[in-house]
Amino acid sequence: MTDQPRPSRAESRRIAAPYGSWASPITARLIAESGIALGWLQAAAGELFWVEMRPLEDGRSVLVRRTAHGEIVDVVPATTNTRTLVHEYGGGIYALHAAADGSVTAYFSEFEDQRLYRLEVSGAGGGATSGEAASGPRPITPVPPKPRSVRYADGRVTPDGRTLVCVRERHEDGAVTNELVALPTDGSAAPQVVATGHDFFAAPRLSPDGRQLAWLSWDHPQMPWDGTELWVADLTADGELAAQRRVAGAAAESVLQPAWSPDGRLHFVSDRSGWWNLYRVESGGDSARGGEIACGVAALAPLAAELAKPPWVFGLQNYDFLPDGRIAACFGKDGAEHLGLIDPARPGIVPLPCELTAFSSLVALGEQVAVIGGGAARAAAVALVDPGSGAACEVRRSKTIDIDPGYISVPEPIAFPTSYPEGSIVGPLADELTAAKDQRRGAAGEDGVDVTAHALYYPPANRDFEAPPGERPPLIVMSHGGPTAAAGAQLSFDVQYWTSRGIGVVEVNYGGSTGYGRAYRERLRGNWGIVDTVDCINAARYLADRGDADRARIAVQGGSAGGYTTLNALTRHRFFAAGASYFGLADLEAFATGGTHKFESQYLVGLIGPYPQMAAVHRERSPIHHVANIACPVLVLQGLDDAIVPPAQSEIIVAALKNNGVPYAYLAFPGEQHGFRKAGNIVRSLESELYFYGRVFGFAPADEIVPVDIKNLA
Questions:
Q1: What is the pLDDT of residues 420-431, one digit of tens each?
Q2: Whole-model pTM?
């Protein structure tokens, strides 16, 4: 496989070459080595902080700082990995405290031992000091009884700098306990439990005067996007809580992202209207009535849009307070994201004309709005946005190189019809289908009914190549993880890798995805393995019917929960010609009976039903029991240290493929967990998938790729 020549810029004629064989500057090595992942913005003393995940440093996460003078430096030493394993997915990695003299102190979790560490970041006046130049981090929590058995996340420091309040997760004697703890920031005493009694806690947030604490809690089998409770209590001088009261939330109301405004008013996001909107507490709850809700709540920006995202990780922040009293917020509507301003005195949101169209984090930095954002043709970056003009100035880019726009595919949002097997659907979606069926019957006298699902379609795009006349491109159907998540319209080289080689991609936001309101999110309740799978098939069928895909060369691909959808599509349907499962969930019973971590251990109650009462449904929906039905080639990729989807599940799939004589390849990566972080493994997985499709679909990639051993392939 040799590189094909590319025309010069002066040449107007493109080279005719089969789809899939186009040469592209977007290589797997470029994807792995030219970029970083950005997350968890915070601001303190006029300075900006965030975390970078660096594949070239074995996936190390690094706390980074932009000084008031614009210099960008690593906060922590080169030996430090700032990452927490609470809920396994982590997030909320660090907390900051700015003293009256302008000095800043950081408190963070170290991946190796999961203890909390303290580090003086800058002296008075905000002068730049690197982690190496400072005295170095020192632990402020005890050595855990077993390695990584005590973990911390999502902390905040009291205004006086003396106390840190955070989430703690203890793994002891086979049990996992989550609670809120308070500890002295100098490490002089062990953490003290301040809130317990619920299965999960998140977002402890201190009022500006340090006298009140707000937090979230929820219990099995709820997930935080199903239902949470928002609590407030007085914080006493000795670090204990008094007068606890619940001010919002319930089993069917998801409350997220509590935050105090500078004037001491509590805000939160709730989906009580069917959409995650912003609210403000007008009066406190009544603790004298057993913690029952008794408070006024005002909706600040009621609209059919989402001002939050599902909290798979701690520390997500989609709004913050500007000095003039307005609130900057990012929100999603109809599959697109926007930046806007909310004036609490005038309900509603005013969109900013910002060139960024996808956001993952937001924080106020003085009069500016700092975001991690990107767009359809723009990679994610830390950027500063002017709230007057919407102009964005990049501070730190996730990608270190520019790609000519001629190689970039711009997504087309598509809404396509989808329907499900008669009698297969339960829960809220069944009611939705019945109502739609009745409405259609009354209007047209027909019994059949379709509902609408959503996706982002990326056509092949390469300025140097065109396909021979009459050829239609292969298509990769990508099923996102979660499954409570969504694909966004932000430049991803993981997608452009395929489209620039002449392979179309459709990222399916199947029923159950976020960004389209609670009713759409709840389509998956009781229906996982059906709705997501059928929506992926119908997205591909819709594009093939339009002429955008070769029906004989359509593959399905996904990781984690997306891998489950992929495996379901391959075991239960004869539609796809190939598949690639990245650490895909294959055995729901193992997942439901302790085969995964606490955070997701009862996730299936909502997605499938309670176990063991519905054990038969768990077995029937598990791809592992239907592997004999797989009739097309499959690539299986797995991290050997994965605690969420253990390698044994992939190995059972592989054994069945081997016995059935179906073409397959299996790539296992030592040292990788749930998602690949090391550059070499990212390169190998991408190139192997391309090689696999080339062999199966009959095209020769232009790239030089180390061959993959595909078993049972004639």
A1: 998 899 999 998
A2: 0.91
